[in-house]
């Protein structure tokens, strides 16, 4: 979808005229600086303006196979351009995720890039887990794209619980090789991106056996396909897994092994080793691989923010352009954004973009600190970071998925059109609830940390993110963000306390601790969720408080949004507030009326705020959300691209319909 | 997906062995009788076993155009089979929706049937709004499929608010014709199924102008395409609207008019007429078309039930087959259905199937009563039925959409596979939240009735579904379903009271009543939602209480499910319960612990209950949900159908990937 210098829709002109702050200032604030905004836009332009990266026919009209072929074509162009950027010193590892998977990546290839894992998983794993010798051998080939790799961990039978993986790698000292096998149907690798027909190498995670003993999962480099012919090598059973809800261009694959032999040095040995005679040497610390998992979750919180930005931009602009129904019978049909129910659907989502953004920034900073500490051998702060990252990943991806869907539904029937790009955005965002740690599993990991923190009060008092568990007080209700934050902390603390008590009671009644944990898990999940909410509220407040370098006009808007996010959270948790704090029913009325006031205050700036997100039309790819607001023209323009519309009569009329109708005469 | 006489999965065998009741009894109970079960299965077999209705390649792998062509082929076969059934006296109007759109229809054509509206809207509108003469002329042609019609109401700019439609039909007495025009881009018809390239006739809803005056919207029969060539007729601008989130086989179309002339008798004149000289005669009652709208909403509640049945069957069976993670480190990996968090995700959804089913039955009965009354000229009970139908449509479709999505997410990554059929089911169920009255709009219609009922207490006392508004009492908490029902009624009454008060206050402060209504609309929506919940709970209770013809074993299960549904509803509304009833925080603990007990009681029967839903493998169309539980074999079998897997190396390797990799050497 191209941005023409179209006439701007009159309603949007009116909205922009009444905005009380400068949206550009917001853009620079969110990007970090004006310079960073420029760099982002330059990168976007470099990719999105390239005619080689445009398709003749929108992807949704192609067959599954054609989609793959078109995606591989584009993926090669993208990789070539990435190499150009590298050569000019304009891109490093930090940009790959954005270009290959993040907001920009999903704009270039909305169905996903089949080669993404090469840069995002294959090379980082070589770097993180290969010895210097292994890196020397492989990194060069991979970095310069002589080979293309993927990362094969998940199996048909095992996802989040990776200890249960079944693929075996048995060491044979007589030939100094590992023999890979898929002992069961469920042990087949299933899901890795690009595995189906794209990659010719993979890092395969398998249970290592040597000298008759299993030593748990380890990574192995395996060549999958012949360099010249791309034919699967002997013993490699490989293909793609079929259609999915979204990301149908990523070529997710399956992979089975029948006595596939790889040299000993194909096991990545930075942490653990197998000697030529088969002796196994264990990794000094199992926490070292922990950091990467945290990194990915940090990135996902940022991605959730991007998807939300996109969806609310589309829904808010559409709601300003769309006129429908009546408030007063004497008046013309109002913009649907003037319905308070519509404001209630959308404005808290606008506010949540900021909540996610600030928490993503916090996570990123703390991740970098903790990583430096790790390199200096200090592991102390990792569990706390891990606990926050787990519940933020779960809470933010779940909220973003619901939020994107709410945006889509708020656009009525037109939100159901592929050309709105809301269905596609949902396909990408909902997947995040499952991958890189299923959300319920992650919340239970946070809960384990919370219960431990509750039990070790003396240590907990020194941990920034959880010390409130042992320090809360039940403040009397006031109409303030501070009260809401303290109340949500109180809620979390009481939920943790209650869950701990119920575990105890179950253990005392004779249950095994594990069963007691399982039986209390609904409450535990709810406690971890509340912890995530309290963290988001606190981080939002601390960030807004510390902002000094913005205009008073922008600051006012940031504070209004912060208040809206806080009140809306409180109103989602009235049951917990009434149960665990001293607030009363009449206080909820105060919050409800405050919410309504805030919706009204934000109304004139709604379009300005989403303009400030500065998501370009190319990235939005939405007939409903473009900057010019020419919604109906664009819906038509998109419909005209359907191959069915290239001829007035489809051949099926003559083949099927006419013979049927005639047979009835 | 075919049901083979495969070996049944061992876990499912174990589950079925421990079931405490006979699932077949449940099937007959839900169908209405053993005879009705047999008839349903016979109809399913008649369609689903027909080799002409099977596709060589699963639809998801086809291009958009190929999907349409394959769907038209099948649609003609289905229509031929419908005619066969008619001739044998085995099908009437009551079966069309099921075959063309309901559970069976979506099993035959998961992407939707492009000819559905012919039987579901075109013919019923001719019957309902045509004069005897018009019926004589058109019904025969339509019934025998000499012509194929659709129903064109929604426009690019107007959906739920049909009074705002812009298409014009201006009467020209000199030729005794109407001249149809699309005065604006937004006046183009947009969405009607089959309009793009399938139908050759449409009933078009347009603003009628005669003698210089607009008389509002009326229906007109318009010929769209030439009978022999299928070419669009003069002045008809027509095509399809492009890809959507789901239903990509329905050929939704757009339609514009440039001075299209139709004879006077093409206006359907049963209710209003235009005389040859242009004199307009108004319909005696505007409430007469009201009934059809109610009918469709009744049907949608039943459809929501079917989709939920499908999704929970898939998720529960998969959760019994899937093993993952650990409860105790010493034990083998448990079935994931043994995690209480998984039970909490799924079992309340099982229970909601019954809640929806019983309310759909109630609606159907009352709809028939009220229709008989209408025919006798008695309109009194229509507004009350309309109010219930609106909020049940909104509450049940919204819950079903969330529920189907929760089922999908509970299946982890495999739920994201198209072959799970959960994404496809979501695509169908979420559309129901928008069409036939957008949910928020419908809740506000119910709210209007509730506010009126609150204001007219003397009348309200005689209305079954709302008399509780003026009769509630705040019962002291007991651990009982009856308390929950009375408490949710109390909640609704207090919400209605509060909303009425806030509207009053706003009016007194000088706001126009319409603005006061809009500003209170968030609370009004919430009151209507609570009314729907109270109705579902009450109907569930009354139905279960009145059941006498089932075994004690089944009755026990029905009561457990009813309790679970009630407790789960209460726990979703703790904020309202604490605010508006005398229950306390410790009572919530009692409810939470009751919920956990119920999950544990239902656990052994979970598979038995979904077996009792008796959704055949063909209807489920799910690799994860089949009766035999051979989940992994079926996932593989489905993947093998991908055209990409029909050759080991895709041509794109030689075209794009190899040249790129070689260029880097």
From TrEMBL, chains A, B:
Residue intervals of the Acyl-CoA oxidase C-terminal domain: 482-662
Q: Where is the protein situated, by its record's location annotation?
A: Peroxisome
Q: Where is the Acyl-coenzyme A oxidase N-terminal domain?
A: 22-148
Q: Does the keyword NADP apply?
A: no
Q: Can you quote a single GO CC term?
A: peroxisome
User: Pfam families under this entry?
Assistant: ACOX, ACOX_C_alpha1, Acyl-CoA_ox_N
Query: Where on this chain does FAD bind?
Result: 154, 193
Biological process terms in GO annotation = fatty acid beta-oxidation using acyl-CoA oxidase; lipid homeostasis
One example of the protein's molecular function in GO is: fatty acid binding
In which pathway does this enzyme or protein participate? Lipid metabolism; peroxisomal fatty acid beta-oxidation
What is its cofactor?
A: FAD
Q: Which UniProt keywords apply?
A: FAD, Fatty acid metabolism, Flavoprotein, Lipid metabolism, Oxidoreductase, Peroxisome
Positions annotated as active site in the UniProt record = 436 (proton acceptor)
Protein family: Belongs to the acyl-CoA oxidase family.
Q: Which PANTHER family match?
A: ELECTRON TRANSPORT OXIDOREDUCTASE (PTHR10909), PEROXISOMAL ACYL-COENZYME A OXIDASE 1 (PTHR10909:SF250)
Under what name is this protein listed? Acyl-coenzyme A oxidase
